[in-house]
UniProtKB/TrEMBL annotation:
This is MaoC family dehydratase. It comes from Nocardioides jiangsuensis. Gene3D superfamilies: Hotdog Thioesterase (3.10.129.10). InterPro entries: HotDog_dom_sf, MC_hydratase, MCH/BMMD. It holds the Pfam family MC_hydratase.
Length: 172
């Protein structure tokens, strides 16, 4: 299975549909909120959400959805990346609730070779996240520095840093 792409493998206009989706649980949402110290009651307090908000229930924190989509895109987009350079834009379009399943896809908007180093380039992509019913919930654009084939070849090929298995000596 491929993990990431080299600069040469990206084509402007190509869309990668990330698989599988992820069903968001209350545990996922609460843990992310607690780890990131986002204690807003909209995400953590069911009574508050049910009785004082337009949604009538807890809303999954948007940065979790963004992080989930970013992670989903790694095998297709940035698995070989040298660096994530920029998050150009990030929009939360619709709320996500506990029990929703998130799917994502990324489209290559542009790409260009580095002007300072001939072994890499930049890929400009847009990722869209949507729920099980197709509702768009999150969209973001980013720029990723990715290696060219010569960069990978100089560092061990497709799986740089992978050790060679050393078999134990035969008993005898």
């Amino acid at each position: 299975m491929q993990f990431g792409r080299s600069y040469e493998e990206f084509e402007v206009g190509a869309t990668y549909k990330h698989w599988p989706g992820k069903t968001v649980t209350e545990y996922d949402d609460h843990l992310f909120c607690l780890i990131t110290m986002n204690h807003h009651p909209l995400h953590l307090d069911t009574n508050y959400a049910e009785n004082t908000t337009q949604f009538g229930r807890n809303v999954v924190v948007g940065n979790y959805i963004y992080s989930l989509l970013l992670g989903m895109s790694v095998p297709d987009i940035s698995g070989k990346a040298i660096a994530n350079l920029e998050i150009e834009s990030l929009r939360h379009v619709a709320p996500t609730f506990h029990g929703d399943t998130i799917y994502g896809e990324t489209t290559v908007l542009d790409k260009w070779a580095s002007t300072s180093k001939d072994d890499r380039g930049v890929v400009h992509v847009e990722t869209k996240g949507y729920k099980q019913d197709g509702t768009l919930v999150c969209i973001f654009k980013r720029k990723v520095m990715v290696p060219k084939n010569n960069y990978l070849e100089a560092r061990g090929g497709e799986q740089p840093g992978r050790p060679t298995l050393v078999e134990p000596p035969a008993k005898g």
